[in-house]
Specification:
Elements lengths: L2 E3 L6 E3 L1 E4 L7 H4 L5 H13 L4 E3 L8 H13 L7 E6 L10 H15 L4 E7 L8 H4 L4 H10 L3 E8 L2 H10 L4 E5 L10 H9 L3 E5 L6 H4 L6 E2 L2 E2 L2 H17 L3 H10 L6 E5 L3 H12 L4 H7 L19
Parallel strand pairs: 3-4, 3-12, 4-5, 5-6, 6-7, 7-8, 8-9, 9-12
Antiparallel strand pairs: 1-2, 10-11
Length: 320
């Protein structure tokens, strides 16, 4: 699988990456549970395969994602050569507090859970949910600590991982990030992140586009999934999905392959992060990444309308 270098860092990742949130078992978000044995089998297959990045977070399942990944790392005696594990600094999940001391504790908790002494990629995560944004962005805040962690050599690259663009873009412009993660805002259904991706690409910031399947509906289809971006929706909201499904049927291509390659073929995007929770989904995504899709299809797809509104404006987020 082809790789793309992140800026001039010397760190290159495959154009497809895997996400570890569902490995934690978060039924409120994904609608299903994932037991420990299944999660570990999935992680083992990630490490054995061609993809070279796995993204996780301190707060996914209140620590379960990192704990499960860490157990597999210990069992195999370390990360695969050249593998870029990414994790995140998170707020206190009880109080929402997110200053420098909390950021440092979050890193320490992550390193202990993962069994590592440093990480290749470290993001500051979800500042929009902090009790007070000033504790993140101000003097002595979590962002200062993120860059201090990089200076200490505990992370090679540091980034910003969040959803709300009205808050993300100003932060992105104020700090010298190496990378960013945004989710659900550059998919077949929604292109809200388009202008931000232009800005980041021009600045040499590595772009990780997460959740290209809009929470699963673009992978499993509207007949199986009645949720978009982790929220229950009505039949009217599913109409755009069905428009893409109709075009896919006309050309005999898989909707999942189209949704994945829509992101992977974008020259601005360093890597596309897809959540996985079972070994079979790894193989399915690898096949979708390679599926041949004719140019005529992409030309017609460009004519289908999409949204630029915040797709999670009404979402109630539950990390456990």
């Amino acid at each position: 699988m082809k790789k793309r270098e992140i800026g001039t860092s010397g760190i290159a990742v495959t154009r497809l990456s895997f996400g570890g949130s569902s490995l934690a078992s978060m039924p409120d978000t994904y609608g299903y549970e994932v037991d420990e044995a299944r999660a570990k089998q999935t992680i083992e297959q990630v490490f054995a395969g061609p993809v070279t990045m796995l993204d996780t977070s301190r707060n996914y399942g209140m620590g379960r994602s990192e704990a499960r990944i860490g157990e597999v790392i210990r069992q195999r005696g370390g990360l695969p050569e050249g593998f870029a594990l990414a994790t995140k600094l998170d707020r206190d999940m009880t109080t929402g507090h997110f200053d420098a001391s909390r950021a440092r504790r979050s890193l320490e908790e992550s390193l202990e859970a993962l069994g590592l002494d440093r990480v290749p990629i470290l993001h500051l995560h979800d500042p929009e949910y902090a009790a007070d944004l000033e504790t993140v962005t101000g003097s002595g805040g979590a962002l200062e600590e993120l860059f201090k962690i990089k200076q200490e050599g505990l992370a090679d690259l540091v980034g910003l991982a969040m959803g709300r663009l009205d808050m993300m873009v100003p932060i992105l412009k104020d700090w010298p990030f190496d990378v960013l993660i945004n989710h659900n805002r550059y998919t077949l259904l929604n292109r809200q992140a388009d202008q931000m991706f232009d800005y980041a690409f021009d600045k040499g910031i590595g772009i990780f586009n997460a959740a290209p399947f809009a929470g699963g509906v673009l992978a499993k289809g509207s007949s199986q999934v009645k949720r978009i971006t982790y929220q229950d929706v009505d039949e009217e909201a599913l109409a755009p999905v069905r428009a893409f499904e109709s075009l896919c049927a006309e050309f005999s291509v898989d909707l999942g392959a189209v949704a994945l390659q829509f992101s992977m073929r974008d020259p601005r995007i360093t890597s596309t992060i897809v959540g996985v929770s079972r070994p079979e989904s790894i193989e399915r995504n690898l096949a979708w990444a390679k599926m041949e899709i004719p140019p005529a299809f992409w030309a017609q797809l460009a004519q289908i309308p999409y949204s630029t509104d915040d797709p999670e404006a009404n979402r109630v987020y539950k990390p456990d």
